[in-house]
Amino acid sequence: MTTTLPAAPHHEAPPAPDLPSGGTVRTAATEVLAVMGRRLRRLRRAPGRAIGVVLNPLVSMVLLGYLFRDAVTLPAGGSYVEYVFAGGAVQVGLACVGPTAVSLAMDFQGGLVDRFRSLPISRVAVPLGHTCADLLVGLVGLAVTAGTGLALGWRSHTGVLPTLAGFALVAAFVYVMLWLGVLLALTLRSIETISVVAPFIVVVLPFLSSAFLSPRSMPGAIRPLAEWNPVSAVIAACRELWGNPATTSPGFVGDHPLLVVAVTLSVLLTSCCAVSLRRFRTAGR
């Protein structure tokens, strides 16, 4: 008579946590750095997406700020080159949305994200690695934009600390836009659709703000949209920090741009991170 021994119980590996606990912060940081390194190596082999981050704001500043500097008159006076510079700096963040969304969508379509999710790594490592790597690209684009602005005649008139605070604000805006790109990738999941939506963000949103023209000079139906556009609030705050010509709009947004920016960016970052992480955990299941 043969005796059949009971099979050993099969224990499934516990799912990886969405966020690392205190004891696994170092491991999570290593995972994020690994994803960052992969993303930067891909950008080095295919720099076309990174070039677009620099090219879009440069085209706007050169075509509008330099060629039309004598053709556009600001309501309150001042240099049009200095007026346009804040719009070009903020456009760096808008230009980062598309490359981040396309890169993450490609990882989904290629099955890489599924392989990552099969490993015992933190769920936040993949999107956080993408956004941290693309933040470095955005900072390079911001530095090139600042150098070009200085060459065209832009100057800050408020001292070192307010000037640095303005660039820190733009860097924060860039990072928030990167998470918007992550959310866009997890929502659309189609590279073709993302390629259609991304140009709308980088081209249309600045023209529906105070980036290049005063909202007071726009048609009445568009003026409220331009005044309440979060991009306009970031631009107004930067102009205030840099002492550049501004076109203040009546109301709470025009009177308190820094407060509006702090609340808007905090809400956008929190909501984009929360929704993106939830969709990343459940996508494809």
Verbal overview:
The chain has one domain. Helices cover 70% and strands 0% of the residues. It has helices spanning 25-45, 48-66, 80-109, 112-117, 125-152, 160-188, 191-207, 223-228, 230-242, 252-255, 257-282. The N and C termini lie far apart (46 Å). The model is unreliable at 1-14 (pLDDT under 50).
Topology at a glance:
Blueprint (H helix, E strand, L loop, with lengths): L24 H21 L2 H19 L13 H30 L2 H6 L7 H28 L7 H29 L2 H17 L15 H6 L1 H13 L9 H4 L1 H26 L3
Helix pairs in contact: 1-5, 2-3, 2-5, 3-5, 3-6, 3-7, 3-9, 5-6, 6-9, 6-11, 9-11
- Main beta sheet strand tally, sense and closure: none
**What is the domain total for the residues?**
1
Q: Tell me the series of helices and strands, N- to C-terminal.
A: HHHHHHHHHHH
Which ranges are low-confidence, i.e. pLDDT below 50, for 5 or more consecutive residues?
1-14
Rounded to an integer in angstroms, the radius of gyration calculated over CA atoms is 22 Å
Distance between the termini: 46 Å
- Number of alpha- plus pi-helical segments: 11
Residue-averaged pLDDT: 83
The number of strands is: 0
Indicate the percent of residues in helices: 55-70%
Task: Name the beta content range.
Answer: under 5%
Shape: elongated
Which class best fits the helix and strand makeup?
A: mainly alpha
GO biological process, one term: response to antibiotic
Organism: Streptomyces olivochromogenes
Pfam families: ABC2_membrane
Keywords: Antibiotic resistance, Cell membrane, Membrane, Transmembrane, Transmembrane helix, Transport
